[in-house]
From TrEMBL:
<feature type="region of interest" description="SAM motif II">
    <location>
        <begin position="195"/>
        <end position="203"/>
    </location>
</feature>
<keyword id="KW-0949">S-adenosyl-L-methionine</keyword>
<keyword id="KW-0808">Transferase</keyword>
<feature type="region of interest" description="SAM motif I">
    <location>
        <begin position="132"/>
        <end position="141"/>
    </location>
</feature>
<feature type="region of interest" description="SAM motif III">
    <location>
        <begin position="222"/>
        <end position="231"/>
    </location>
</feature>
<dbReference type="InterPro" id="IPR025774">
    <property type="entry name" value="PiNMT-like"/>
</dbReference>
<dbReference type="InterPro" id="IPR013216">
    <property type="entry name" value="Methyltransf_11"/>
</dbReference>
<protein>
    <recommendedName>
        <fullName>Methyltransferase type 11 domain-containing protein</fullName>
    </recommendedName>
</protein>
<dbReference type="GO" id="GO:0032259">
    <property type="term" value="P:methylation"/>
</dbReference>
<keyword id="KW-0489">Methyltransferase</keyword>
<dbReference type="Pfam" id="PF08241">
    <property type="entry name" value="Methyltransf_11"/>
</dbReference>
<feature type="domain" description="Methyltransferase type 11">
    <location>
        <begin position="133"/>
        <end position="231"/>
    </location>
</feature>
<dbReference type="GO" id="GO:0008757">
    <property type="term" value="F:S-adenosylmethionine-dependent methyltransferase activity"/>
</dbReference>
<dbReference type="InterPro" id="IPR029063">
    <property type="entry name" value="SAM-dependent_MTases_sf"/>
</dbReference>
<comment type="similarity">
    <text>Belongs to the class I-like SAM-binding methyltransferase superfamily. gTMT family.</text>
</comment>
Length: 350
């Protein structure tokens, strides 16, 4: 059972858009406005070493990032649900197929089913997962679908109080409150004992994690022996054998996306695989599903440009509007081969 993280991790090619790169940077007392409240950090250079200063700075940045993510989804989840429904993730489309507007919600269900199939989750009812955690659950669409499919019990976690409240309300309305529940919690410090879940599900939440090693470590920790871990997430392209970093234009494009969607560090699929290997997880496999999600962002843009979409955006607030304006950047990233829509699955040893 994995209970702690290794002392060292493989070299990763993540780009960091919220972190100061030099641990020697010294800073005075600062106060940063976040939403309608405020948050401050004070560090005394006279009594604190460079390493401690850097650690305090990282913690403060992570805290600020978490608050930004929570506020972003507090503000935008209602708009998304109103237009796209309860599944807050990409759809899975057959390549080169003609896609009608009515197909998009069905494509989101296909994304769930194809993810289960890719991970090798058994069709045999005797082998179905009995306990599930939905890490970064949104308003609970995946959890409720999986509970109904497998007859399992599930718990979802999110940084957004608005999402957790709405997810629980939808579960109650669908008669599933005895099977599934949702709470506000940090995916990097999950409030669960070791080895609790047969299926650990992360559908498009990994991109928000500032510490990918800790994120993977928590997924491994809460997975039961023999349990399945499924990570579906945005990544940047794998680096070539002679590359040490992305090109400057690629880093610039990702930074602009990060600023709009409250994302910290991007990493590659290869980086995730190295991390999973460092925790001795088994049957690790991955795939690039970028071609299967290609119709998604153009469809989201079209929905945002309808009268209903525009009025919803205007009511929702600045963060949601800024995210909507960044959607063409996602399309650009996919078209240029920089952004990859990755699925990664593995199993915890018995």
């Amino acid at each position: 059972m994995v209970t702690t993280m290794s002392a060292t991790f493989p070299q990763m090619s993540c780009i960091h858009t919220f972190r100061t790169q030099s641990p020697l940077v010294r800073f005075k007392s600062t106060r940063n406005r976040v939403g309608s409240g405020s948050w401050s950090i004070r560090v005394s250079p006279a009594s604190t070493g460079p390493g401690e200063i850097a650690l305090a700075q990282h913690r403060s940045e992570d805290k600020q990032l978490q608050m930004g993510i929570a506020e972003f989804y507090d503000e935008s989840s209602g708009v998304w649900e109103d237009i796209w429904g309860e599944h807050m993730h990409h759809g899975f489309y057959n390549q080169d197929s003609t896609v009608s507007v009515s197909d998009h919600r069905a494509a989101q269900i296909r994304m769930i089913e194809e993810s289960l199939r890719f991970a090798g989750v058994s069709e045999d009812p005797r082998k179905w997962p009995k306990s599930i955690v939905d890490v970064g659950c949104g308003i609970g669409g995946s959890s409720r679908y999986l509970v109904k499919k497998f007859g399992a019990k599930s718990v979802g976690i999110t940084l957004s109080p608005v999402q957790a409240h709405r997810a629980n309300a939808l579960a109650a309305a669908q008669g599933l409150a005895h099977k599934v529940s949702f709470r506000v919690a940090d995916a990097l410090e999950q409030p669960f004992p070791d080895g609790q879940f047969d299926l650990v599900w992360s559908m498009e939440s990994g991109e928000h994690m500032p510490n990918k090693a800790k994120f993977v470590g928590e997924l491994a920790r809460v997975a039961a022996p023999g349990g399945t871990i499924i990570i579906v997430t945005w990544c940047h392209r794998d680096l070539g054998p002679t590359e040490k970093s992305l090109h400057p234009w690629e880093e610039d494009l990702l930074k602009r996306i990060c600023d709009a969607f409250y994302l910290p560090a991007w990493c590659s699929t290869a980086d995730y695989i190295k991390l999973l290997e460092s925790f001795s997880l088994q049957d690790i496999k991955s795939a690039d599903w970028s071609p299967h999600v290609a119709p998604f962002w153009p469809a989201v843009i079209r929905s945002a440009l309808t009268w209903k979409g525009l009025t919803s955006l205007l009511r929702s607030g600045l963060k949601t509007t800024r995210g909507a304006l960044a959607m063409p950047l996602m399309i650009e990233g996919y078209k240029k081969g920089l952004i990859k829509f990755a699925i990664i699955a593995c199993r915890k040893p018995e």
